[in-house]
Amino acid sequence: MLKKIAALAAVVAVLPLGAGVVTSVSSPVIANAATKKATKKATKKATSKIYTLTGSKNIKKSFHIKSGSPALYKGKFAADKAQVTLTKIGSLKVRKTYKATQQITVKQNKKNVKYVYVTNGKTKGWTLASKLTAGKFMPAD
């Protein structure tokens, strides 16, 4: 106990008095810039949703998008529960062919909804299967 008190006293003796009280003229600007960065990160931070996993299977299909830009999600699967956490990371682009390798079924608003894992170059993630059209993209002549 005495050793702990002696060590604490040594640390207190090394610290300068009033270190937290010293301020400068530029500190509000730095604090404001830091606050803005933190606010931007908070607004950019994607919201995650947790769903109950009801099924999964491997598939090998090609899909494309006829209209719109469906959301692309990153999926994290629980090791000990039948749950998946989907976090939005972007959206898919039209006029491209996406290869689907896996399909999951989740319980969403008391309905079973299918998501597929699609890839195209650097683009990869989970998207709603209902937003995709089967087959390769073929440009109209």
In DSSP terms, counting alpha (H) and pi (I) runs of 4 or more, how many helices? Answer: 2
**Helix content percent band:** 10-25%
Residues in β-strands, percent: 35-45%
What does the overall shape look like?
Answer: elongated
Query: Low-confidence parts lasting 5 or more residues at pLDDT below 50?
Result: 18-29
Largest sheet, in brief, is:
7 strands, antiparallel
What structural class should be given to the helix and strand makeup? Answer: alpha+beta
The total count of strands amounts to 7
Q: What is the end-to-end distance?
A: 85 Å
Q: Roughly how many Å is the radius of gyration?
A: 26 Å
Mean pLDDT: 81
Query: What is the helix/strand order?
Result: HHEEEEEEE
How is this structure best described in words?
The structure is a single chain. The chain has 141 residues and is an alpha+beta fold. The chain contains two helices and seven strands, in the order H-H-E-E-E-E-E-E-E. It has helices at residues 2-14, 27-44, and strands spanning 48-64, 71-77, 83-91, 97-108, 111-120, 123-128, 133-134. Strands 1, 2, 3, 4, 5, 6 and 7 form a seven-stranded antiparallel β-sheet that branches. Strand 5 and strand 6 form a beta hairpin. The protein is elongated, with a radius of gyration of 26 Å.
